[in-house]
């Protein structure tokens, strides 16, 4: 996994509540999905007009936000389907951090699997960040410092955020979950051996048709 | 402090291999369900990393998302069927994973196949790369949906790294009114609690109404847990559960069965145990539901009127409602009944089991689908389809003008190309009324199977209770 240590850039406010992963990556675009191409269809129902042209009202189509690296989102962003393509898509657009009051749980986890940082903050703080992201004050640069667990806004305010130690380490070091868990292979085997005595019915025999 | 435990606590504790930090545990996965949309790809990814499937005997694969529901279908009947269902078959065969392929008598939607084959068991920890995996909690399993990276992780290690959610108990008590189904109960709950009430929680459903439900009804309840944000929904296993499972293909047998049942009887929340949140629902208040918006909380009794954005106190709900009314092309203040529809879809992991089809058939019998409506029945599995045909349900539907199709996810998620056309209005027994869910600019009204069948007959949203008389 790629590392995420510090992030500096524009934050785009996308405050519509309950943006589900069907909006982020419509089902019709999933079949041939790859992490490299998914961004073409990200936010398709909001980002494009029925004729295929760009919707000028959509925040990421506006010149000030085209290069955004942070999304400030409405509540329950990423609810719905477990499709990880939603994270591939926003990452493909250059977004490495999403900040909101709440997120769909599966989406929230999927972000970490792709080195995208989701940050939960109280609603008032999210609203303030959205306001600052939306204000044209010459400087639109936000800074996220993963090691310090802080957001610095264009006006220089510093906000702390919560991030568990293991997830911080994974982001800073670019650690892969599978590699981490494989270190416990012995313990997994011991668990299964013990559990097989207690719950033999769980341990099915091999393939049967 | 008492040492009383919730059902969730007991299920969780039984699967901890070791804590990885204060808040993160490494948990054993007893059951992994794999489908065509992400399964083949995950196994290829695994091979590319030089890894193999750790416990193929604890996995089950079946295609559902990409395949056509067309009668007489092959993998080639849908645009990506050969690529994805074929890919799943090849990967499963190479790994030695139990695979119910397109031609297999047990093929179907993962969340229908798991319970009906008893691959899903009480007390098991089950995951799948699909958010509706909460369904399996209806049998007393600890089950939730994961992403594709986590799927690869499970294949390689037979474990998940997971943070403990908070607990919530929703008690539903009382008798259900005439024409009220499990779908109406859970839509009512979502409407009442709000679309993100379950975020971060594992939900246990309890109370006399739930206890009186069949397993198929409980599966519908747990299925929609994710629609108010709860990754996990569960119901304590009881005699209804054990009767349902006994004798199914992958259920324990003989002495193992007796031992298992004795073990499963302990899987209940202890008296007086604390939950982080508790809610009580009066079953008598629930009417047949239909959704009017683009989020599952936007539901109302079928005899109700479409709300106006200003009816809602919260700014967020007003905002959502304005967008939804516009997308759905509905007028506040009008009765939802009488809204003309174009399509009906009866199927999906929510409502495609035998009892669902029976209820729809009761409505369809000796009636005709309205001329302007295209109505599909997509059974949840080959087992459901065969059982329905054995009792003649297919004939009832066909005579009424419904299409009787092959098992799969079909128009619920429309990844197989079976979309609702732009601007069309569909009454669907599925689980999501999201913008574009059934196809670009498609309009979805969620309802139970009897309500959906009634809408097909009437050609408009209609109160099943009046049609039945």
Describe this structure in words.
The complex is a heterodimer of chains A (209) and B (469). With 209 residues, chain A is α/β, with parallel strands linked by helices. Helix content of chain A is 32%, strand content 15%. With 469 residues, chain B is an alpha/beta fold. In chain B, the strands form 5 sheets. In chain B, strands 5-4-3-6-7 form a 5-stranded parallel beta sheet. A 5-stranded parallel beta sheet of chain B has the order 17-16-15-18-19, with helices on one face. In chain B, 63% of the residues are buried. The mean pLDDT of chain B is 96. Chain B folds into 3 domains: 7-163 and 238-260, Aconitase, domain 3, CATH 3.30.499.10; 166-237 and 269-285, Aconitase, Domain 2 (3-Layer(aba) Sandwich); 289-468, 2-Layer Sandwich (Aconitase, domain 3). The chains are: A alpha/beta (209), B alpha/beta (469).
Return the structural class of chain B.
alpha/beta
Topology-level CATH name of the largest domain in chain B? Aconitase, domain 3
Number of strands of chain A: 7
The percent of residues in helical segments of chain A reads 25-40%
* Poorly predicted parts of chain A: none
CATH architecture grouping of the largest domain in chain B: 2-Layer Sandwich
Could you report the average pLDDT of chain A, rounded to the nearest whole number?
94
Describe the global form of chain B. Answer: globular
Can you count the helices of chain B? 16
| Helical residues, percent of chain B | 25-40%
Named CATH topology of chain A = Aconitase, domain 4
- Report the structural category of chain A: alpha/beta
Strand percentage of chain B, roughly?
15-25%
